[in-house]
Structures are given as structure tokens and as C-alpha cells.
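A student in our group prepared the protein record below, which I am reviewing. Thanks in advance; the entry in question is below.
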Amino acid sequence: MQMDTEAPIKVPEYQMLRILIPEPDAVINDGTGDVVVSANSEPALLPKHNYRLIVDGQPHAQPGRSPVFPLQGLTRGTHQLAVEIIDAEGHTLERTP
């Protein structure tokens, strides 16, 4: 008799992760380079998970439980933002497009 040894299918823990502010392709023209990024996940952040902001492909500040990220002195021009949910080991579980 042979046993099926395939790994179980991993069910995503989060159904949705998105950046609420700023909206995609938003133009921010306050002159200071200060921007607040806000994200939302469904379900809410699970224990031992953190949010991490990615700016132009690089992690920005320390991961944390808050989905609100103040950015200061952002240079003028186009920037790419993403938010990730990471586990206690720093592995990315979800990422916004």
C-alpha cells in the first residue's frame, strides 16, 4: 500500500491586502515630501505578523503592527509603494501589487 506524501495545499491567510492612501497613480503636491501611507487587510493582522512598507523596492523603516506609515522628505518624482505582511521570521506572506 502506498501513501500519498504530497504536501497539503496552503490556504492563504489573508483574502485582501491593499493600500488605501495614497490611491494608485495619485499626484501628491504638498511641497514637503511628507506622505502618509495607509493599508488595510482582511482579516485584520494576525498574531506574530507585521506590516512592512516597501518604497521603490526597498524596505522602509521597521516592520510593525500599524498599517499607517509616515514618509518624510520623499524626493520629487515617481515612486513605487507596496505593503507586505510578514511573519515572525521575516518571510513575506502577502504583498500589494
User: Anything to note?
Assistant: The first strand starts at residue 16 and ends at 21.
